[in-house]
Amino acid sequence: MGEFLPRKDQYNIAVVGATGTVGQTMLEILAERDFPVGELVPLASSRSAGSRIEFRGKGYVVRDLANFDPAGLPGGLDIALFSAGSGTSEEYAPRFAGAGCYVIDNSSAWRMHDDVCLVVPEVNPHALEMAKKNHIIANPNCSTIQMVVALKPLHDAVPIKRVVVSTYQAVSGAGGRAIKELATQTRNLLSGNEAEADVLPARIAFNVIPHIDVFLDDGYTREERKMMDETRKIMGADIAVTATTVRVPVFYSHSEAVNLTFEGFMTAERARNILAQADGICVVDDPASEDYPLPSDAAGTDPVWVGRIRDDDSCPDSLHLWIVADNVRKGAALNTIQIAEILVRQSDE
Ligand SMILES: NC(=O)c1ccc[n+]([C@@H]2O[C@H](COP(=O)([O-])OP(=O)(O)OC[C@H]3O[C@@H](n4cnc5c(N)ncnc54)[C@H](OP(=O)(O)O)[C@@H]3O)[C@@H](O)[C@H]2O)c1
Prior knowledge:
The protein is of the alpha/beta class. The chain contains nine helices and 15 strands. Bound molecules: NADP nicotinamide-adenine-dinucleotide phosphate.
């Protein structure tokens, strides 16, 4: 693939949205994986500019993105990790890319642009080549990432014809305020008080909401449309994909019930063997001992967990999978850092 950045001992990194759920997890993962960070520049809005964040035991003052000049840092910026919403990315990612650094963006702003790559390192790392031109790389939607990690090794064995997915998505997917909303509503209802919905479109405590992001004219939600379009772009294949995305009262980790139909011979046993050897996947699938992936077990972990692998008796060459992953880690921050690791990798390593 060739090199993206020159060889250096350390790289200067900006984290845009450093005070948020994803931004904080990015900082944790940069430290955990011993990423060669030189200068760290934490950025957020004027609301939290001046506050302090911690990285590797050292305090840093959060700076206001609106007043930061990406071309003005001594030594230059190498990589900017964006997780501050689509509007912020639309406005600021081109400025950072124009200053010469690579932007890895967690929002949906750039994902479906023809000249921007949409990357999951286990699935389509070669797509990163495109970023050498415009320096913007899109990180897919959290629900899409965990699903394509499981689809890819199966699709390589026998092409997938159709995917039907229903999601069970944690509130952390909607940011820090939604996490607080579930906690507050649960406490209020258990104390006999009213529970007000503010961030999410309806009460989430003791409920499920079949509505994530806005409704489109065709009756799908934008979250559903993202899963359908992004899956085809990342897989580079014209797979039929249909999705129903649902918010559930879980704090961390999205779960997905996925039904797959293949172009040719595929069985649950064959799929289990393929998935057991695939990068980034842990198979937990033992009905005899009632063992299957749970969001509570996946929270705080890196792999995509797959279980309940079984033949779909209603249709030949079809299977069911249950896919669970930490949406803030593999669904966002970890995937971003894995991309950054490719950008700093040297060809002789
Ligand atoms: N949570 C997930 O599982 C997940 C998964 C994939 C992608 N994403 C995407 O990642 C992004 C952040 O999500 P999150 O869950 O971390 O949200 P969050 O907890 O609400 O945090 C939002 C962050 O963005 C910053 N921000 C907001 N507006 C800004 C502006 N105008 N200028 C600069 N900074 C601004 C906030 O700074 P202040 O402290 O100043 O408000 C905060 O640091 C979103 O685009 C989201 O769609 C999230």
